[in-house]
Amino acid sequence: MFAVLKNLGWFFKREKRRYVIGLVLLILAGVLELAPPRLLGKAIDNIATGTVTWSSLTTYILLIIAVLAIIYLITYIWMHKLFGGSNLVERLLRTRFMNHLLGMTPPFFERSRTGDLMARATNDLRSVAGTVGFGMLTLTDSTAYLSVIFIAMSTLISWKLTLAAIIPLPFIALAMKIYGKIIHERYTLAQDAFGDMNDQVLESVAGIRVIRAYVQERNDEKRFADITNDVYKKNLAVAKVDAYFEPTIRLFVGLSYAIGLTYGIYLVFHNELTLGDLVSFNMYLGMMIWPMFAIGELINVMQRGGASLDRVNETLNVRPDVQDPEHPVEVAVPESIEFKDVTFRYPTSTINNLENIDLSIQRGETLGIVGRTGSGKSTLLKQLLHEYPSGTGELVISGVPIGQITLNRLHGWIGYVPQEQVLFSKTVRQNIQFGRSGASDDVIMEAIRTAAFDQDLGTLSDGLDTLVGEKGVALSGGQKQRVSLARAFIADPDILILDDALSAVDARTEARIIENIRSKRSGKTTLISTHRLSAIEHADWIVVLEKGRIIEQGTHEELLQQNGWYREQYERQQVESNLTDGEVS
């Protein structure tokens, strides 16, 4: 049960001073709370014997008030320390969790569900934080505070009465152990269900246009109702066990009261106990109610926190599929890129997605990659990102295998525009500045002109300050592509990768962008995959892929002379272009 505290040992070690002060003051407050009942018992005995005076009564009252004031001050300090630690560990763990996600590679996100990761980053971390705040409170009160009360009852009142009154207490411990195990199991299932619900919401929101287009609103509502019902049932299963804690404790504490009162009266009649002692004892017995409840709360909090920490650690313990080399080789500039008999297969694939790829690209050259859908164009480009474990063969940059270059160095060379553009819920300016932090408006406008987005900018309501909405929902497909292109251009990378990044723009805009790339990227390497051959006619070298293999390669003119797939596709696209131009005219 306390494994969660052991696993958080690094935090307690770091915040040792905070917790030493907090726990010492918490125990001190518990000791001071013993004084008012004892003073009240003494006052009652004085009244019963007729020895009370206004002076002594005033003294008792002032002492009780003074003790309560001191307890108030001490309680403020320990609550600030303990519950402040709870907020602190939540912030630290959330930061660590987010940093971990940012360092993970695509295979991890292919295996993980976004909704489940969100559940772990919110609900689970909140439960873990509860163990170092409320959990430490209940741990201290159910052990140290309970022991202090027990010792006071035994030494100051009557050890016989104390032993009789605590007979029911071991049954509380047994019940708590049984309930705690069930809580752990059911809470884990409830959190998993919460992650499933998050996934459903994300998919529905992201795909709302498709859902409406196919008139699937009612079906989606039913799916969501089913999954929320599942979450409700699993949380209800937790609540049912949780509901046993308080009645169980009240039952056995009530038995303690009954035994204490009955046996206490017997001792008073036999002059083994004074009336004041019996009143004090019953007040102490009342003070034991919270420590008894604290045992139940402790088990509940620790089991929830343990289940949540297991889920969080499950994510944090996953290592990236691709990591930095132990002994990296420093490469200043990517002078050349060479694929030497590279064969690659995705972890989830049963066939080779690239096979026997041999290519050589020198700095300043442009490589065009074409082929049918699913031929491996994107896969070939992603080899340079080194997001997946390498296959066989070698991918070499400036004579150094890519596995010996740090990921930060490698990614620092690359500007990447993927097929599916990702824009953030910020302004156009902020999205473009993602490529170069703090870039001035003049630099941004130059990148926009290179991406042929300058004319569209005037149609936006607030120009550069226009909010693009989540995932760029406020922009058209072509506009999103060109904002993504501007983001890559402003970074001025050594290696620019365009993965079918011109598919949503018209032929005239495409020609303008390609011309801008040719003029502004002189001396830097560019790789372009596309379905429209007009985008790579200017390339220094072109490869045609089929089922992960290079079936044709050469310059534009050389490929036309080979009378293969490239020429057939080129002539078809020329006919389509002429027909389109004819319709326009």
TrEMBL record:
- Record protein name field: Multidrug ABC transporter permease/ATP-binding protein
Organism whose genome encodes this protein: Paenibacillus vini
Q: Enumerate the spans annotated as ABC transporter domain.
A: 337-572
Q: Any idea where this protein resides?
A: Cell membrane
Q: Name one Pfam family in it.
A: ABC_tran
Bilayer-spanning residue ranges: 57-78, 128-151, 157-176, 249-269, 281-301
Alphabetized, the UniProt keywords read: ATP-binding, Membrane, Nucleotide-binding, Transmembrane, Transmembrane helix
**InterPro entries attached here?**
AAA+_ATPase, ABC1_TM_dom, ABC1_TM_sf, ABC_transporter-like_ATP-bd, ABC_transporter-like_CS, P-loop_NTPase, Type_1_exporter
Q: What Gene3D superfamilies does the entry give?
A: ABC transporter type 1, transmembrane domain, P-loop containing nucleotide triphosphate hydrolases
Topological relation to the membrane, as annotated = Multi-pass membrane protein
Where mainly located? membrane
Instruction: Enumerate the SUPFAM superfamilies for this protein.
Output: ABC transporter transmembrane region, P-loop containing nucleoside triphosphate hydrolases
